[in-house]
Specification:
alpha/beta, about 260 residues, three-stranded mixed beta sheet, nine-stranded mixed beta sheet
């Protein structure tokens, strides 16, 4: 009888302390994992890829990582945001941990495609409208007029007055289409007005566009009609393309 009572008592104790025992096991495992990650998973190798404008050393310094840092104590998203603030040409960045000791940083950099007036000179901008740096005198980026950058700072988005906001929106849409169609290198200047855009194309054509027009459609038309014109009138012909009319996709007027 006494033995039976003792067995029942032991079973009740096991049931009572079972959850506590499991919790202690979990906590012990967590402590062990944390200790292991802190002691063993330290950065020994840093690999940078995708960079051309910035050196490996510049990118590592902007991320703020060095050999000996712990792989798991790093807030990757905070480090990426920090790097993008310091490096204006940085479009995107990914940071990947490769156990046991390698940190891989992959970057993509903006290209300067256009320049807009602001401050004491012109500022280079990306396709997405990010201010990159002040444009040098010999910059070959597309010259944009009709916009003025307000308080330009490297790494910030291009900001303009409320009156010029529709022009800025149109500019960014057009630049995106030109990039998509591989036409950026053929454009030398963009003049923005309240209703139109005048685009200097291939050094011999002025293309007239509506500010709120369908740029994707118009650029596809332009890519078709220019070769046809070259074939019929020669590659030295100069003039303007009126692409503002609804009934006619493109109307050419020779100089």
């Amino acid at each position: 009888m006494a033995r039976g009572r003792n067995n029942r008592k032991r079973r009740r104790n096991r049931r009572r302390f079972g959850p506590l025992f499991k919790l202690l096991c979990i906590l012990t495992a967590a402590v062990a994992l944390t200790f292991g990650a802190t002691v063993f998973f330290q950065v020994e190798t840093i690999v940078v890829s995708g960079n051309s404008r910035y050196t490996q050393e510049e990118i590592i310094a902007a991320v703020g990582v060095q050999v000996g840092d712990n792989l798991f104590r790093m807030n990757k998203f905070q480090r990426i945001e920090q790097a993008e603030e310091q490096l204006p040409y940085l479009e995107s960045m990914t940071i990947r941990r490769s156990l046991p000791s390698t940190l891989t940083i992959t970057v993509q950099e903006w290209e300067a495609v256009a320049q807009v007036p602001g401050g004491e000179g012109n500022w280079l901008i990306s396709v997405g409208g990010k201010l990159l740096e002040q444009a040098p005198q010999d910059s070959g980026a597309i010259a944009v007029t009709g916009l003025t950058a307000l308080a330009p700072q490297p790494g910030q988005q291009l900001a303009v007055s409320q009156e010029e906001t529709p022009r800025l929106e149109a500019l960014l849409k057009l630049l995106a289409v030109l990039e998509e169609q591989n036409m950026l290198s053929d454009v030398s200047a963009l003049e923005l007005t309240a209703t139109r855009i005048n685009m200097e194309y291939q050094g011999r054509f002025t293309v007239k566009l509506l500010l709120n027009g369908d740029f994707s459609y118009r650029m596809k038309v332009l890519l078709e009609v220019v070769p046809q014109l070259n074939q019929s009138m020669g590659e030295d012909v100069r003039g303007s393309w009126d692409m503002t009319q609804e009934e006619y996709p493109a109307v050419f007027s020779a100089e």
